[in-house]
Amino acid sequence: xxxxxxxxxxxxxxxxxxxxxxxxxxxxxxxxxxxxxxxxxxxxxxxxxxxxxxxxxxxxxxxxxxxxxxxxxxxxxxxxxxxxxxxxxxxxxxxxxxxxxxxxxxxxxxxxxxxxxxxxxxxxxxxxxxxxxxxxxxxxxxxxxxxxxxxxxxxxxxxxxxxxxxxxxxxx
Length: 172
What we know:
The protein is α+β, with helices and mostly antiparallel strands. The protein has helices at residues 3-9, 23-34, 53-61, 69-72, 97-118, 131-138, 167-170, and strands at 45-50, 75-81, 122-126, 145-153.
């Protein structure tokens, strides 16, 4: 599959087959994220792959996610970035380090999602969460930003493409 095909085929999947995702496949999608560019090659991103049903149950007991499908996904990938990793600055030109970390994490996560699509896996970005609770359960440093998680598994649905704006609406 080429990149444009992965982009066209990617859907937000919220219903997964009850099938385990191998550690090798998880490593493959994380490796794609690892190859993404980051400002000054800072590489601030880290990922936690949750497969354990006990951890998922604890998250559910604490109502960490607003959407129930998250708890049933074979894998929940917690996406973090450390703003303290940025040491190089250009006065008057830089965003905040938190914004830089989120930007670089987002780029890397896009690579992850496209690689997952290529491998026949479905994913969904989930931003309705209690980040501080996740950090607490996984012992993630408070320095990290945790703007979203990505659910991943073998799709048990095939949603139609969602409407998109035309190129003329977004290219000014």
